[in-house]
Amino acid sequence: MTRNPAIELRQISKSFGPVQANKDINISVMPGTIHGIIGENGAGKSTLMSILYGFYKADAGEIFVDGKKISIPDSQAAIAAGIGMVFQHFKLVENFSVLENIVLGAESGALLAPSLSKARTELAELASEYELNVDPDAIIEDIGVGMQQRVEILKALYRQANILILDEPTGVLTPAEADQLFRILKRLREEGKTIILITHKLREIMDITDTVSVMRQGEMTATLKTDDTSPEDLAELMVGRKVLLRVDKTTAKPTKPVLEVQNLSMIDDFGVQRLKNINLTVKAGEILGIAGVAGNGQSELLQVLGGYSAATGVVKLNGSEIDLSTSVSGDGQARRAMGMAHVPEDRQREGLIMDFMAWENAVFGYHREKSNQANKFFMDNNAIRKETEEKMKRFDVRPPNPKLTAKNFSGGNQQKIVLAREIERNPDLLLVGQPTRGVDIGAIEFIHQQIVALRDQGKAILLISVELDEILSLSDRVLVMFDGEIMGERQPANTNEKELGLLMAGVSEKAAQ
Amino acid sequence: MDIMPKWVDIIIVPLLSLFLAAFLSALLIIAIGESPIAALNLMIEGTLLRSAGWGYMLYYTTNFIFTGLAVSVAFHAALFNIGGEGQAMIGGLGVALVCLFIPWPHWTLAIVGASIGAAVFGMIWAGLPAYLQAKRGSHIVITTIMFNFIAAGVLNFFLVDVLKPKGSMDPASANFPVSTHLPTFQDIASLFGFEKAFRSAPANVSFFIALLACVAVWYLIWRSPLGYEIRALGKSGPAARYAGVRPVKIIMIAMMISGALCGMMAINTTQGESERLILNFTEGAGFIGIAVALMGRSHPLGVLLAALLFGFLYQGGAELALWTKIPRELIVVIQALVILFTGALSLMVRAPLESFFMSLRKAKE
């Protein structure tokens, strides 16, 4: 007797205006397996999952759970059908306890106490069954990200989910936490749960899934058994052409120091110390990578160096000291004039103005420079447009139309606009934050090449990224940050993810050795 | 890609909003017991078919251009300046002081002086809430509204206790010296031999200053690096910080330009029309500026067109009040409906248009 698939999608289609986000998607996942869905940003993975969880209504297509056709008009219906979802950004009430969060929305009566005590016993059962140990009385904001994720999983299990969907679950985890998560997932699989894992990380797909579907531009390009495929094949399926997964670069030839940071400390508006006595030097001709789990001070470091947060300490650029005291807003433009360029972590919030046209964005931060002025009073818009069009061609921005609004470009092309702006200024120092976050694989390759090329021209580059792979493949030296401190320095050639992972988790230098 | 062509967004959406507002107003007029068609005829006759009608319309339009531009400039920095009324009042005070206490040899010099006085006073009045917003985070909407009341109090004080000539019962300043009086459209037409044109209508040369202000604002917003920074801050605060744009500075500058423009409205009303400072001379123009800026999509050309429309409605409304049972307040209703449709309900107007263009596109494919 053949078993019914735990979940099956037939010919699911969905479009948003002129954009076809999903086109005739077919998936069938057998119970007790882990199915990966991989694809670039914008390939339609999240849309598909939102349809499954009742956030969007599909334009066409059918959904079957355990062989029965169902409709999912809202998330309540999804939960009733046994579908649970763990979002990339957790949906937890920060100042509630674990128990309260789990019960929230699934209370069994008008009074809270019976629900809570019932949940407490069930939680204990779940914990022992799946090795999902969490203190039920801990407050969410006091526990780590890995624990919060467990709470999300428990929430789904408490609601009797048989099918668990995880959207980019390892984005915020250290490698060790990710390994723990994968152990939990394997355990859940043993217990007969069905898991759908959405990710853009090839390694995770290879490590844990049984079958994998590849999405590209809203279509399902392939469904394969994981054992029968390789990362290279998957990457090619995702992008539609052969991709270089490793960065080609020669050994660095660092010369004089360009950026010197001494005893840099910073306290944010809420009185929390975000940077603690940071010391680092970036030399001309090298890429210094800073690894760390998101939220450990890397963003603040970039903001202080980029000139929009005040700090104490000494920062020298090409030997001359920078004023760090500017309180509300710094002197980003003055620093640019000194030879600093900055590709910010969040291109949509900071690097670009999404409602501005490409040419307006192409001079952002440099708009008062002489070369962009027609005369004392006005900007030379025609010249800027013309120059932007050439820049867009050089950086392969598609379409190379300077009059198109930034929000109409894809993530990768947006990032190329930012990179073109910052790199073409020929800066002495380039600060780069998350250069390839949300960027498709094809563009990642190009962006990495540009960064390495800039290094080879003898420029200094400070790279911040939460993607360990990226740090390891691009950097010439790696610093690890934890809780606002530099935990240690490593050579990419002589270290591995495990060692860096320990440093990222705050295990001190000594203990790591 | 944008769903609709740009021209639909710029022309059809405001026109449709206007049409909806007009339709509801027509229902109101029917409810009052008058004929909307007759009312429209009367409005057109009293405004567009007589030169004096034009003279009144353009007088109102001048006010609305100034306040509409003011609200637009603030909008570009994502600031909602509701204080146009107060800034115009204080601007009027500036005009009065300049006209009364400086002996001007000729109106050409006086208008320059009065413009500067009006702008500086309006600038200061907008600068205070701007400072509170930029430095202390007090919301500009709240503070500018409160500043309207304070401005009214200040104006009252000056008119009752300081500027009122001895023995006068009227809370108003003395008449300005003749050398500061601005040529009206009638004076200008007389120069060319048309003595009867624009008879006794209040429109005056400050209309041309308003047109100049449109051009200046266009250059400021779309051509200058300052305008670029204003728009950048308005679209995204974090991005502006990243680019080294100082929010405090830009908020202050944008609001002060806004206040200066509101203040300059007073050269039309106070120097040009009443030729002395009176109470309540702003007549709500500061608020109408919001509707004008919304309808004109914060673009100087759009503001000019919307100001003309509201000038027409104002003058037409006066005609209605004169000849029919329709109260003048109906214009306020129409104005409110336009704000409602262009501002709050613009999605309601846009959504069917968007789906229409979607189906057009689908049909093409």
Please tell me about this protein's structure.
The complex is a heterodimer of chains A (513) and B (365). Chain A is an alpha/beta fold. Chain A has 2 domains: 233 residues, P-loop containing nucleotide triphosphate hydrolases (Rossmann fold, 3-Layer(aba) Sandwich), CATH 3.40.50.300; 256 residues, 3-Layer(aba) Sandwich (Rossmann fold), CATH 3.40.50. In chain A, 33% of the residues lie in helices and 24% in strands. Chain A is built from 18 helices and 20 strands. In chain A, the strands form 4 sheets. Chain A has a 6-stranded mixed sheet with strand order 6-7-8-3-9-10, with helices on both faces. A 6-stranded mixed sheet of chain A has the order 16-17-18-13-19-20, with helices on both faces. In chain A, helix 14 runs parallel beside helix 15. The termini of chain A are far apart. Chain B has 365 residues and is mainly alpha-helical. Chain B folds into 2 domains: 75 residues; 266 residues, ABC transporter involved in vitamin B12 uptake, BtuC, CATH 1.10.3470. Chain B contains 15 helices and no strands. The interface between A and B is medium-sized, with 37 and 25 residues.
Provide a compact summary of the structure.
Chain A is 33% helix and 24% strand. Chain A has 18 helices and 20 strands. Chain A has helices at residues 45-52, 75-80, 98-103, 112-130, 145-158, 175-190, 202-208, 231-239, 298-306, 332-337, 347-351, 358-361, 381-394, 411-423, 441-456, 468-474, 497-504, 509-512, and strands spanning 7-16, 19-29, 34-39, 60-65, 68-70, 83-86, 163-167, 194-199, 211-216, 219-225, 257-267, 273-283, 287-291, 312-317, 320-321, 340-343, 429-433, 460-464, 477-482, 485-490.
